[in-house]
Amino acid sequence: MRNRSSAIWRMRFAVQVIVLLCVPVAALAAPADGSLSPTNIFAPVSTPAHSILGLSLFVLAVTAAIFVIVFSLLVYCVVRFGKRADDDGREPAQVYGSNQVELAWTVIPVLIIVVLFLATAQVIASIQKAAQPGNAIQVIAIGHQFWWEYRYPGLKVVTANELHVPVSDPAQPTPTFITLLSADTDHSFWVPRLAGKSDLIPNHPSTMWIDPQQTGLYLGQCAQYCGTQHAKMLLRVYVQSRQEFDRWIEEQSRPAQANPAVSEGQRIFETTACINCHAVNGTAADGRFGPDLTHLMSRETIASGAAPNTPENLRLWIQNPEAIKPGSKMPAMGLSDHELDAVTTYLATLR
Ligand code: HEC
Ligand SMILES: [Cu+2]
Predict the structure, then answer these.
(1) Would you say the CB of residue 302 lies under 6 angstroms from ligand 1?
(2) Whose alpha carbon is nearest atom 2 of ligand 1?
(3) 23-50: per-residue pLDDT in tens?
(4) Distance from the CA of 162 to the center of ligand 2, in angstroms?
(5) Quick one: residue 148, left, alpha or beta (phi over 0 = left, psi -120 to 50 = alpha)?
(6) 281 CA to middle of ligand 1, Å?
(7) Domains, the chain
């Protein structure tokens, strides 16, 4: 009698363990409030991200099957062969060596690994060898500590931190091919809903591509530790309709408009070291160490997504970048309150 009740207890314990182990998987698959995280790897909108999700689900299915088989056998053994109340305390028969069993547990895992390897290699190859159509958008992305520079070669557009690309109709794809470069150390471009991670390595250009099929804002994050402010090196990709994108390109390719009302701020900007690091197209400022500011106000955020682009944040940033991004590569320039106001007012005209 005691035997049976202890077996039932063990069985119940095993079931509880299995249920507990399943909770994180269920939580991953379905967020409680039903909303989608902007970086959700389960909601791809671009071909490379779709292939990667398909592969992940395949790997998950294979490993889940292995888990269920191994765990069931384990539970069976615990329940069936555990110590019993009427145990006579003698050592059970010891078995050494079995060619069949050893072959089975060597060959089967090797086969599983080969299948996983081939599936992965196939996805990598299909993404990497995708041909670049003539109408593809070209972007050069340059990783800097701790911000992103984007250049549209041939279009005279240079911007920072907020990448704009056109939506790609699957019937007539207009993918964006991105050449990845680095100005200093390793970074990694990762916008999970659009594509897998691709590293930006100094002196080693690489390419990736996306063909987002839905307009919207897609977020990401530098995925390779690159220094103090790596965590605030955020990625923002704006996928726009073709008309909006063309309009954006047109606006971005214009030089900055001179505005006599803010000439004091412009003068301070141009006589302080700002222009050694920042460019404002159409003026004397042609620094390249920091973000291009020609159309600063067309961006929703500053400092690589670290803060919304409001006049207060701009002023605070120029006064003391450390207040927003400790360890950033922009120094506090020690401007007076009056100079700060004037420079901020000038920057606010750069639309
Ligand atoms: C030594 C080079 C350097 C100097 C000098 C410098 N900056 Fe910067 N600036 C940077 C860098 C680098 C960043 C990017 C910081 C980051 O996001 O990590 C930046 C970011 C900015 C941004 C935010 C741009 C964006 O889109 O995120 C503004 C605005 C700005 N600087 C204004 C100024 C002004 C005004 C001055 C002069 C008072 C100045 N900077 C002087 C290097 C410099
Ligand atoms: Cu980085």
Answers:
(1) yes
(2) 277
(3) 555 555 555 555 678 899 999 999 999 9
(4) 15
(5) beta
(6) 15
(7) 2-86+97-128 (1.10.287.90), 137-240 (2.60.40.420), 260-347 (2.60.40.420)
